[in-house]
């Protein structure tokens, strides 16, 4: 492939939306109210829409006949580059909201930088996605506040979720080799520069939600290199089921 | 079951595009006004139906009683002089 | 009110409906009208919401991203339709929570078809094509029903549902034109969903209670048997077009009637499922009750937060 770095870079971005979209999709029909159900499905739909734009572009770059579905569904588990955060399960609604919130704040900052990319396609995708993600931030932040500053039970559950998910936040700011090359070419986003502001923003909101900012300094990493938590394999078995069971067919 | 814990009902008004009035679209449940706005966005404008949303908690709406329709609305029925067709014009004048 | 006065009001009420006037929430209405509407509208709402489950089953396993977003959007619409219909029912003075209680306790019914399992991807096609197809036949006349809020909700529902059946038929078409394995999958789904879809249009006219009254109130415009015939007549050519076979050996075009004759429906199975003995009745209720109970702390938190925020605001004003 001529531009393997760009290809890998796009996959790195898109896999986050793919895996998170899949997780949000799991909630459909099982939310705490019909209204929240509809809202979570909207987020899932936004994310899958983004995935399709990214993978269609990646397919073009690969220059062979691979489709968005080939890229989404026919890789091995070690070839997915999403961060560990987004693959964490829907343990309860606080985990779903916590995961969404911790990712959304990063996602918005990332996309506003990606809008400055020299790659015009990525730039255009970022332009479109940023409005969706701004809404996601608003939605998940509001819910963190409701749960954090709600009842005793909800506050405990929200705190527990934040504590457990915190360990996956640092990885958002790691750079892979493809990232570095892309940054040097003016195409990619230097995520290391987003870190300080991210923790500032997240801490501010947690404080507003009457929650403690976790103090743990030990972080998990590996997703960007394809070393995932045990959860991803199960998620992929669902995601890939049809394509694996009935290979080379059109749907 | 304690009833006061339930999310109250809100009435949703949506402006489809600028230049048009807000129209009643339906209702939904939400814990507070912000949530009502967000829910309304997701429930009633998924297909690009709106550019502006109003939400009002249903209990704040005061409605007229249909039993009073006679005294409220019927007196207006015979006030034909409020309509242009009440007035005679010579045939030569086409528009006025 | 004296009996005579009530009788008088009832006569006026029926006359209004006969004149095609709409009834609005605060209008006087006979108790039976209110109760019948609460029952039918909430059943309708429950069906939308329970109906999310068999399809929701396949969101994570949809075979392509295009199919996945279409399916998600369709199920989301069903949540929306449940919501519109619950809201319309609430105008009759019953809360959504009460309606949920009726569903969860088994007191309220929902469409029996959702008690069948979705075991292959082709079931997504069959549901969209057949189940939504049958539902549309039932629903379109309701856009003109006598109770204003119900009619308005149905107009919105019908407008949004227009893509649902196409979504399903497209899935079936793709399978039917695909590999032999895919075509088998489609045929198998048609075999399993055909008869339940016919049952979905309700018991035969001679076994159907409420019909006369419902006709008068425009809750029904055609009899169950007429609707069923309409469904069969429109669906058979659609199956032929994509090379699938309707699983009914007695199905035959009747030139005199200009309609299809069809075989005996297994009403015993229908009543078994209605009574709760379908393959998935228990699972469906478990999922709904589970979502509701697990969501309680979330709903409570939102209310507690709203109250705190309100109090803080008031303090600031003072």
Could you describe the 3D structure shown?
The complex is a heterotrimer of chains A (251), B (96) and C (318). Chain A is mostly helical. Chain A has helices spanning 4-26, 34-62, 68-73, 84-87, 93-114, 120-148, 152-166, 177-184, 195-208, 231-245. Chain B is of the alpha+beta class. Chain B is 18% helix and 22% strand. Chain B has helices at 33-44, 69-73; strands spanning 9-15, 22-29, 52-57. Chain C has 318 residues and is an all-alpha fold. Chain C has 13 helices and 2 strands, in the order ααααααααααββααα. Chain C has a two-stranded antiparallel ribbon with strand order 1-2. In chain C, helix 2 (31-50) runs antiparallel to helix 4 (65-90), helix 6 packs antiparallel against helix 7 (148-176) and helix 6 (122-139) packs antiparallel against helix 10.
Throw out a few tags for this protein.
heterotrimer, B: 96 residues, alpha+beta, Ubiquitin-like (UB roll), 18% helix, C: 318 residues, mainly alpha, two-stranded antiparallel sheet, 68% helix, globular
Short description, anyone?
Chain A is built from ten helices and no strands.
Largest inter-chain interface? A-C, 49 and 49 residues
Number of strands of chain B: 3
| Percentage of residues in strands of chain A | under 5%
Principal-axis shape of chain B: elongated
Mean pLDDT of chain A: 97
What is the averaged pLDDT score of chain B? 91
Overall structural domain count of chain A: 1
Contiguous runs where pLDDT drops below 50 for at least 5 residues of chain A: none
Give the CATH architecture of chain A: Up-down Bundle
Helix content of chain B: 10-25%
């Amino acid at each position: 492939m001529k531009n393997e770095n760009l290809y890998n870079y796009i996959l790195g971005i898109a896999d986050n939306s793919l895996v998170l979209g899949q997780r949000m999709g799991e909630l459909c029909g099982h939310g705490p109210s019909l209204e929240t159900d509809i809202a979570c499905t909207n987020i899932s739909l936004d994310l899958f829409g983004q995935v399709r734009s990214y993978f269609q572009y990646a397919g073009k770059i690969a220059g062979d006949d691979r489709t968005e579905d080939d890229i989404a569904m026919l890789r091995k588990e070690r070839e997915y580059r999403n961060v560990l955060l987004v693959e964490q399960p829907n343990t309860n609604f606080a985990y779903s909201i916590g995961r969404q919130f911790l990712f959304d704040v990063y996602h918005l900052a990332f996309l506003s930088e990606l809008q400055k990319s020299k790659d015009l396609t990525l730039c255009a995708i970022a332009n479109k996605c940023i409005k969706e993600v701004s809404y996601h931030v608003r939605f998940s932040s509001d819910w963190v506040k409701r749960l954090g500053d709600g009842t005793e039970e909800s506050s405990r559950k929200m705190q527990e979720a934040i504590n457990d998910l915190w360990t996956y936040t640092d990885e958002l700011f790691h750079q892979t080799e493809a990232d570095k090359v892309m940054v040097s070419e003016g195409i990619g986003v230097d995520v290391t520069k987003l870190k300080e502001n991210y923790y500032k923003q997240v801490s501010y909101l947690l404080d507003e939600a009457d929650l403690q900012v976790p103090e743990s300094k030990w972080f998990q990493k590996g997703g960007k290199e394809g070393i995932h938590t045990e959860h991803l394999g199960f998620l992929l078995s669902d995601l890939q089921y049809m394509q694996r069971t009935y290979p080379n067919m059109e749907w | 079951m304690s009833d006061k814990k339930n999310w109250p009902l809100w009435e949703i008004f949506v402006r489809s595009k600028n230049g048009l009035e807000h129209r009643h679209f339906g209702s939904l449940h939400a814990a507070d006004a912000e949530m009502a706005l967000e829910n309304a966005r997701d429930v009633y404008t998924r297909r690009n139906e709106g550019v502006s949303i109003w939400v009002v908690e249903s209990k704040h709406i005061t409605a007229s009683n249909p039993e009073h329709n006679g005294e409220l609305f019927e007196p207006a029925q015979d006030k034909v002089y409020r309509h242009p067709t009440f007035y005679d014009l010579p045939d030569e004048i086409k528009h006025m | 009110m004296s009996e005579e006065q009530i009788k008088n009001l009832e006569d006026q009420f029926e006359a209004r409906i006969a004149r095609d006037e709409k009834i609005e929430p605060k209008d006087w209405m006979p108790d039976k009208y209110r109760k019948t509407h609460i029952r039918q509208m909430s059943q309708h709402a429950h069906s939308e919401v329970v109906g999310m489950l068999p399809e929701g089953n396949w969101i994570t396993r949809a075979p392509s991203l295009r199919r996945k977003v279409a399916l998600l959007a369709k199920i989301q619409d069903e949540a929306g339709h449940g919501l519109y219909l619950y809201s319309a029912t609430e105008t009759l003075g019953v809360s959504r929570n009460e309606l949920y209680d009726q569903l969860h306790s088994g007191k309220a019914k929902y469409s029996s078809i959702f008690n069948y399992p979705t075991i292959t991807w082709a079931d997504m096609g069959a549901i969209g094509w057949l189940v939504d197809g049958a539902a549309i036949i039932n629903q379109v006349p309701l856009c003109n029903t006598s109770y204003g809020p119900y009619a308005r909700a149905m107009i919105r529902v019908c407008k949004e549902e227009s893509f649902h059946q196409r979504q399903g038929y497209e899935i079936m078409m793709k399978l039917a034109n695909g590999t032999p394995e895919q075509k088998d999958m489609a045929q198998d789904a048609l075999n399993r969903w055909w008869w339940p879809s016919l049952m979905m249009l309700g018991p035969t006219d001679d076994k159907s209670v409420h019909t006369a009254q419902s006709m008068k109130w425009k809750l029904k415009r055609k009899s169950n048997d007429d609707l069923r015939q309409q469904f069969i007549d429109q669906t058979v050519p659609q199956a032929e077009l994509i090379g699938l076979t309707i699983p009914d050996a007695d199905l035959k075009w009747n030139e005199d009637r200009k309609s299809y004759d069809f075989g005996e429906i297994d009403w015993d199975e229908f009543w078994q499922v209605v009574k709760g003995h379908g393959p998935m009745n228990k699972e469906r209720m478990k999922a709904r009750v589970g979502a509701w109970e697990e969501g309680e702390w979330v709903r409570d938190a939102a209310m507690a937060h709203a109250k705190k925020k309100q109090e803080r605001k008031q303090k600031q004003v003072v």
